[in-house]
Amino acid sequence: MIKKNSLSYRIITRVLLITVSLFIVVLSVYSYFNRNIIRETARENAIELGGSLEASIDQVLAPMEKIPQMVSNVIELELPAKDDLYRVLETILINNEDVFGAGIAFEPYFFPEEGRYFAPYAYKDGDSIKTLQLGSSDYEYFYWDWYQIPATLQEAYWSEPYFDEGGGNIIMSTYSIPFYVWRDGIRTFAGIATIDVDMEYLTQLVADVRIFESGYAFLLSRNGVALTHPDPSQIMNESIFAASSDWDEPILREIGRDLREGRSNFRAYNITREGKNWIYYTNLSGSRYSIGVVYPDAEMYAPLRRLNLILIVLIIAGLGILATAVVNNINRLAAPLTNFANSSRLIAEGDFNVKLPDIQTKDEMKELHNAFSHMQSQLAEYVKNLKETTAAKEKIESELRIAREIQMSMIPNTFPPFPDMPQVDLFAMLKSAREVGGDLYDFFAVDQDRFCFAIGDVSGKGVPASLFMAVTRTLLRSIADKVKSPSQIAHSLNKSLAINNESCMFVTFFMGIIDLRSGTITYVNAGHNPPVLIKKDGTVEMFKNAGTIPFGLHGDFSYPEESIVLGKEDMIFCYTDGVNEAENVNAELLGDQKMLEVIERHKSQTPRDLIHSMEAAIEEHVAGFPQSDDITMMVMRFNSER
Amino acid sequence: MKNINRLLICIYLMMIVSTLPAENPKLVFGAQWLPQAQFAGYYVAQDQGFYEEAGIDVEIIHPSTTVNTLDYLTSGRADVISLFLTSALNARFDGHQLINIAQLSQHSAIMFVSKKECGIESIEDFEGKRVGVWMSGFQEIPYAVMADNNVNVEWVPILSSVNLFLVGGLDAMTVMWYNEYKRIYLSGVNHEELNTFFMADYDYDVPEDGLYVLPETRKEKEKELKAFTEATLKGWAFASENRDYTIDLVVGIMRKANIPASFAHQRWMLDKILEQHGTEEHPGDQLHLHKEYFEKAFSIMERYNSLSSRFNYEEFFVPVIKATE
User: Among 2.130.10.10, 2.102.10.10, 3.40.250.10, 3.60.40.10, what is the CATH number of A411-638?
Assistant: First the structure.
């Protein structure tokens, strides 16, 4: 069973539609022309048959017509004696088998001694020949058609046929011809010479014609009366005109009138009791009788119909075979498609090694196979690469995570950091933009009365920055162990960092040492954002910008040392550029001004709260835009007394 | 050409054989012409047994070329015959003492027919034309019509065929509406190709078929004649109601007698004869010969025939069934 939406169904319906249409057109054209040929052949046959019938009838009638003509000639040359007329008639009957009777009828009083009537007549009675004088007051022959019509028209006349005198079924017809005598040099009409002819031979000739199964020929009298007919009861009784009336078939009357008017034709006619027929009809010369040959349409075209039927059967069988072949071929050709579909489903599920269908041909299917195969190998390789990359990335990520942990462990993250140093309250936070960052802060006690704090920002980001940060932080601790002044520390730190700094990395750095006794901060600012001083009296101001360069760039640079004195409960807010340069989606920076405003608003808070407030302000500003730089803040409050 | 004799002998023999077992009083009816639908009522009455029911044994005979119906009557071969009114008057003029016992036809069916191509559009156009007319008894009315209109025509005597007319040997022809007119049509001439002139339209609506007997028969067989007339009327009524059957019967009788018979022609004849029997003008006057008709016919016959002995309407029309019955 073919599925309705399958490829083979669609193709076969299209193919069949086109083929069937083509066959219908071809068959119609073929049929049309064949019909024309058959009709033309039938017409030719009909005319030929009609012609040969006409010739055969003429062969019978023409010699008959000669007989009274001879009588007429004899009389005109020299009128025989009255008794001789009987012998002439007898001789005619003896010598002509088909002549049943012969007569010579004279005009009234032609022989005064005979009175009004004189018409010698001879007729066959069985094997003998009898003669009589026909005319009498009971038989006024002048008024009979056989006399009156030729006498009136002065021309030969074949009478309407009649049954023979014996009351049998033999159809007779009388042929009459006027004869003349010379009287006083004038050719004068003297009477009518006749013969009575047995029409049996003629009717048999016509009745014997058979055309196909039920076709026939017919002979009609001048008045359209049937002289032959497949139905014997019609003969001599019904005319073509009566049939037209009885059967309500005007076409028959048309044909009859055509014949009356001497026209021949080949035409189709359709009457209920006979169906469609083709007919050729024509008049017989002389007698004005007519013959027709009838070709039944159904039988005429029967061979064509049979041939058409055979063709249709063959076509249907052919179409069946075609349909089966097409379906099979398409199914065979398209079968790999289903396998391809299955394979691609498996490939999609990750089975790249699935076996593709075997394609033996070198057609489009092979190309599809090659494309599939290529896709399969490409996909396998791609996925392999992807796995490796993913593994490598995961490895790096885990390393970075570890690095971050290490980095975070490098900066102090215990608050408050020094419970035994109540003079300083300090809070710091570092939030890297990536796993690891380049910001740093640190603080530690230098000795009993001094406390060092620092914040820095390494150039660049990520792993290199984090490594440089780690180096900076480590160096700071180790240097601070040996030298105690910020400028010396800065000097050493800068020098160490600059050595072998091939990648020209640098770090901005702010470092200060506060004397817990006096609150004096000595500090060095190596290119770092100036911290903000928050005085207890409420003034908030930035440190003056030292205008020095970051560490790591110039090893011999000498960093000047500055100092500032913190009063009781003054605070210092250190930060990296991740704070004031925090960026939102519109690339707007938070800015120093806004940063100072936030500090101003929250200046009375503890270092921890201030940092959290600042953090909230930054978050509000960036509004979810990804952090692009490390953010580091450190706030220290000087509490002065122990 | 002399076939009729033998045919009639055949028919005669046939009738005799078929009537042998009957014991009813016998009545011989002579139709005035060869078998055709003109006599359908008689054939139907015979075939349906109406005569037998009426207690009579009827034999139907037809004329031949040598013996006409009147001969049958005068010779005693027939007891009752059918005749045209004019033919009967003619016989009476000739001295035959026949009387009318029933007038079946109430109208004239005689007419002239002419091919349009002859250019005869009115009765005046007949002037000088060759007009066919029967030489056997119905010519007086055509003569009278032409004479009344002061038209001189060349009368051409004819027997019964229409062939001379068909082949163009005549300009016009006297025909019967129920018979020859249809015969012409059934020979292929269309109605629209013909001009027709009905005698009835020229004040000669003279009735035709009637039943005639000799006066002594009228006396001797009154009962049988009455039964015959009634049964015949019944036959006509049945024929009117059963036309297909009637046509089959008539055509069968004709073909048995070897007389060419066409259904279409006989159907037409039956229809027209029945119309002719119609009595719309004198309802209830079926079988009645009106005096005015008698006198009209008488005056025509008088113009063309010499009268051997005078007679009047009452002497001529002695019905076996009174009009009021």
Answer: 3.60.40.10
